[in-house]
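Thread: quick sanity check before group meeting

JM: Hey all, I'm pulling together slides for Thursday and realized we never actually wrote out the predicted structure for the chain we discussed last week. Dropping the sequence here so it's in one place. If anyone has concerns about the input, flag it before I start.
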Amino acid sequence: MIVAFSVTPLGVGEDVGEYVADAVRVVRASGLPNRTDAMFTSIEGDWDEVMQVIGQAVAAVEARAPRVSLVLKADIRPGVTNALTSKVETVERHLAD
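JM (edit): ok, ran it. Output follows.
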């Protein structure tokens, strides 16, 4: 499964990059396939491992912010692996046509 999520600290002002970086560090240290863009971090794995990492990412932000907002979107497809890369490759292939 792939989960795209966004963790946003609230009550810390407009510059939240350092807080978001704390969450992204947790994701990258997990060893699970992941990708971060301007709006979301996507992570791929099974339900338990992905949710554990997301929980740790939220905790990292929560440790420094008085309030945290979490947005999740999940693509749950049992038995599918490497979807984080293959879905993008499919779109790129169509764009090249």
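AS: nice. The mean pLDDT is 96. The chain is about 45% helix and 25% strand.
JM: adding both to the slides.
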